[in-house]
Amino acid sequence: MTFSEENYIKAIYHLGIGNEKMVSTNAIAEKMETKPSSVTDMMKKLSEKNLVNYKKYQGVSLTESGRKLALSIIRKHRLWEVFLVDKLDFQWDEVHEVAEQLEHIKSEKLVDKLDTYLGYPKLDPHGDPIPAKDGKFKEMVKILLSEAPINAMGLCIGVKDSSATFLKFLDKHKIALGDTIKVLDKEEFDGSLHIQIKQRNLLISEQIAANLFINLG
Amino acid sequence: MTFSEENYIKAIYHLGIGNEKMVSTNAIAEKMETKPSSVTDMMKKLSEKNLVNYKKYQGVSLTESGRKLALSIIRKHRLWEVFLVDKLDFQWDEVHEVAEQLEHIKSEKLVDKLDTYLGYPKLDPHGDPIPAKDGKFKEMVKILLSEAPINAMGLCIGVKDSSATFLKFLDKHKIALGDTIKVLDKEEFDGSLHIQIKQRNLLISEQIAANLFINLG
DNA sequence: AAAGATATTTAGATATGACTAAAAAAATAT
DNA sequence: ATATTTTTTTAGTCATATCTAAATATCTTT
Predict the structure, then answer these.
(1) Residues with CB under 7 A from strand D
(2) Which among A112, A125, A149, B14 has the fewest CB atoms less than 10 Å away?
(3) Radius of gyration of chain A (CA)
(4) Tens of pLDDT along B157-199?
(5) Which of B88, B98, B109 has its CB closest to that of A117?
(6) Predicted confidence (pLDDT) per residue in A159-183, tens digit
């Protein structure tokens, strides 16, 4: 598998979450920051390798082996992120790019030993679950903070956008995974949320709220 | 820099050690397990990028920036090897292949933090020195065991061949870096050496002796 | 159901890094 | 010093992964 192939597989997996249907060529092109024609070329190749189900004009979905491959790459990505934060003292907003490279290192032994060394972590620094060796993992029950009803209270368990800009914003306002958040009020005008977090009251924009996952009770 | 370019630079560096002259196209081709014509192509490209001095039919040598690049790759390779052995519990004969991949990860911050995490090691698991960030490092004074005179005594400080086969052989016969070795006798017939190591007497072939570095006094 | 808009695919081109076969230069031997 | 061998380079191909431009299929409107 080339890096490029692996990145396509990962993109298809991420796009396919939730909507269990077919993923469109254009959606993949946008995610990969490439042209639709390049996607078509690659889909033919991945189809040959039995990693995706592809029919002209119908979009693609991952086959069983495609899904397994995707999960193994995601497993590696998230384990490396834990390593960078827990062991090397990286900030959580700095790890993504490096993990994008490390996820392509080929050595099963390495991944297993890394997993052991890290103490079999279940979540990465952004709250995303780490697939087990056999590909199994359970998504937590989570909703976007922006969709929580007024007076709802829950644990902050993850971020949707994991860009450095957003993560830095959270750090600056001392919002961290594991914090308890209570929705006090919602502004009708722009959807801003008044929330209570660690004894503090905070007003956050809808865009912020739409990128924070919480777990209700 | 592509992986391929980096691997060529590394190969030229290794071939250029000792013989401070030009490195031949054929030598590079052999080391890289590729064809001389491919080497010529790449030399033109690396020359464009000012990483090698290349003149048709004259061989190549690294420029100052080529040398720096080579040392930074070697630094990464050796630091990762230390990580794999010290932290992840790999055997010393298992680390080379994985480190060949890890050495191409691009992130200065990662290398620096790894160095710190490992406690600024000076040597990798095979006894090779790890270049500092600024590229400086001192080779130990070392000779091949096969070239040591009879009755010489020294510390085993490194291996020349670091293939799994050779390293496993050393493990099997309990020969490790740091052991004191004394040359008792040399067979005239085939160059075999009688050595004393950890109270034991051992007879080793010349080929073995020609891949072990020792440091006299 | 035809027209227009959007999405997707095909065809043909480019850059990288490899290869083979043939030509040319350098080294070695007679 | 000439012939032979070895080394190195050139020329032309190939595969991968991209791209642009043009063609075609599907979706959306009316």
Answers:
(1) A 2, 4-5, 34-35, 37-38, 41-42, 45, 56-57; B 24-27, 36-37, 39-41, 43-44, 54, 56-59
(2) A149
(3) 19
(4) 999 988 899 999 999 999 999 999 999 999 999 999 999 999 9
(5) B88
(6) 998 889 999 999 999 999 999 999 9
